[in-house]
Amino acid sequence: MTLGFRILPRERAVSADVVARFLKLPVANVSDSMSRMTAAGSRLTRMHRDGQMAGPAVTVKARPGDNLMLHKAIDMAQPGDVIVVDAGGDLTNSLMGELMLAYAIKRGVAGFVLNGAIRDADAIRQVNLPVFAAGVTHRGPYKDGPGEINVPIAIEGMVIHAGDLVLGDGDGVLVVPYDEVETVYAATNAKQDAETRQMAAIEAGTNDRSWVDAALKRLGCQIAEGV
């Protein structure tokens, strides 16, 4: 087996039903339901204008500044897939731009997560297909490899396996492991319901804030008399 330059099949992927259900949920609430322990870091920012992203991952491990395997991943992608690329976070050369995005749209790709740079930023913003990246540069990519497709990758400690659920909105990117989607979905729905009730209480002026003083007392905060 050749390590570092190989293309593997994707053995499984979250279903279209799972994707549709998670598209209705804020990434922040999903993150809270995963104990706030999973994140791709603040460097990955939204390069499109607005909207949410969800889909099963096609994973790519690429040499920094090289997009040969990203091209192949787009050729392999199924409609609705999100292509996630770990290119080491290097911003010297871009991984993709307007032409690759246009081809990806024709292929039905649902979005990109690039631990690297893009170019043609204005066009990507206007087209508005979800794209999250670490930065922007006008310098183009190389196409020499090596790289790997559908292997486990990690971005800032967040591990992504092919077929995992990839989410993104204005707060950033999150991956829900394939085997945990139903558990996380149930927990996120419960949190959504609690927040709906809390918002109603805020509007009604009945929101209970006693927990703030209780926490300060428990932590030993000195509060001056009359405050």
UniProtKB/TrEMBL annotation:
Keywords: Magnesium, Metal-binding. The keyword Glycoprotein does not apply. Mg(2+) binds at D120. Pfam families: RraA-like. It comes from the Bacteria. One of its GO terms (molecular function) is metal ion binding. This is Putative 4-hydroxy-4-methyl-2-oxoglutarate aldolase. It comes from Paracoccus haeundaensis.
